[in-house]
Fold:
Amino acid sequence: MNAAPSTPPVSVSVNGEAREIPGGLTLDRLVATLSQAPSGVAAAVNDVVVPRTQWPTTPLGAGDRVEVLTAVQGG
Structure:
């Protein structure tokens, strides 16, 4: 019996901090690890805003720069 091949981790920058993530991780999965409530969250990869509908089909790769922003109400 063969084990499923594992994808090696890759290094990305998340909000300016280096992180190792599983290779092939999608943007929606990364955002889920960072935010309990993904509503009111925006995300950009390599300075390009990614529409929420595309998060599940946006794989992250080595060297990607990800910014995850949360809207905050205040006065």
